[in-house]
Specification:
The complex is a heterodimer of chains A (111) and B (114). Chain A has 111 residues and is mostly beta strands. Chain A contains no helices and 11 strands. Chain B has 114 residues and is mainly beta. The chains are: A mainly beta (111), B mainly beta (114).
């Protein structure tokens, strides 16, 4: 069935290092993909999105890479800070569902 | 980004009672609003999609008579959990968008049914 999944449930990174969070998807018909950050007890916060006709998009300290050949999406966070500690979800529209969320990766930043 | 509020942020109710959760888009008109449920350490699961002035579309497995959704205006949607049971205890999150790609989410409502 259709799914959006993440490779690892947890990721620990030293403060100042770069973080890479991965996501695999099954539906190649999705027009766009979105990364959300969710802090404990809060709703998801939009980070960055990428259209399916792009392979890279950069924001402030974040870069999203899309590899349609292998149906893989990644979020790179440069110079990871303690405030980046959260659960990160990739999400994409699939079929009739406006957004399907992946399982999430918990990023822990070690000071 | 756009701001979505939810009220209450947390609520405790007794089994068998009903609880209403409000979702408001504060600085944009949300033509479509979404309600999600999130259990601990799990992802968000879409419950239903509602368009202003029309009936909500529920996802498979979500009881429409138990989770009543009203989207009376472009800035307000409500979710009423009727005859709540302990298994309904969860984190309920609403999202809205105004025709753009990204959804903006509320801060969530933690429901505990005792």
């Amino acid at each position: 069935g259709e799914s959006v999944g993440l490779h690892l449930p947890t990721l620990s990174v030293q403060e100042g290092d770069n973080s890479i969070i991965n996501c695999a998807y099954s539906n190649s018909a999705s027009d766009y993909f979105i990364w959300y950050k969710q802090e404990s007890g809060k709703g998801p916060q939009f980070i960055i999105d990428i259209r399916s006709n792009m392979d890279k998009r950069q924001g402030q300290r974040v870069t999203v890479l899309l590899n349609k050949t292998v149906k893989h999406l990644s979020l790179q966070i440069a110079a990871t800070q303690p405030g980046d500690s959260a659960v990160y979800f990739c999400a994409a529209p699939m079929g009739n569902t406006p957004l399907v969320f992946g399982k999430g990766t918990r990023l822990s930043v070690i000071a | 980004g756009a701001v979505v509020s939810q009220h209450p942020s947390w609520v405790i109710c007794k089994s068998g009672t009903s609880v209403k959760i409000e979702c408001r888009s504060l600085d944009f008109q949300a033509t479509t609003m979404f309600w999600y449920r999130q259990f601990p350490k799990q992802s968000l699961m879409l419950m239903a999609t509602s368009n202003e002035g029309s009936k909500a579309t529920y996802e498979q497995g979500v009881e429409k008579d138990k989770f009543l959704i009203n989207h009376a205006s472009l800035t307000l949607s409500t979710l009423t959990v009727t005859s709540a049971h302990p298994e309904d205890s969860s984190f309920y999150i609403c999202g809205g968008h105004a025709g753009l790609r990204e959804q903006y989410f509320g801060p969530g409502t933690r429901l505990t049914v005792t």
